[in-house]
């Protein structure tokens, strides 16, 4: 039993290494020769490395593993879905492909969880007690095209995140004017109030000092 478990661990490590080095040939060879995809342990390995591939934004391995039985909507033990992982990789092609494969945008979330849209909008936020544009690092922002894609595929535009912020408030605070335009177009409430501080998106835009966004929200 111990030898079997050690072997599984070694195989998983080899697969992860192949993902990290983007060695698609080596990855496929390991799957084809060392993984029995019909067994319980085989399916678990497939799902774990599928999540790794989504995190890496490697569409080729993602596509390969879906053909091998990976579940496009199965969340990890920490409630991260493959779509969330792909969004955090900032790979538009991978996110688009998962959505084409029926990845769910409108997942049921607990009050302590963020949706995939919240996660995308919060990327680059340095945690603080109060939102403000100086708390954001644009180099970590998720591609605007990805955020628009999530919205177009049914992400809930008026759902508050775990911290009580609305998508519009997050976008206004981080100066994402193109995102704001799209949120409003898809029905986001410009007069919505956050549950954390009782502030509206307009207030966050004013704090951020973005006149263009202020005009959008008036």
From TrEMBL:
Keywords: ANK repeat, Repeat. SMART domains: ANK. Pfam families: Ank_2 (PF12796). Signal peptide: none annotated. ANK repeats lie at residues 53-77, 163-195, 197-218. PANTHER family: ANKYRIN REPEAT AND PROTEIN KINASE DOMAIN-CONTAINING PROTEIN, ANKYRIN REPEAT-CONTAINING PROTEIN-RELATED. This is Uncharacterized protein. The gene is 106075554.
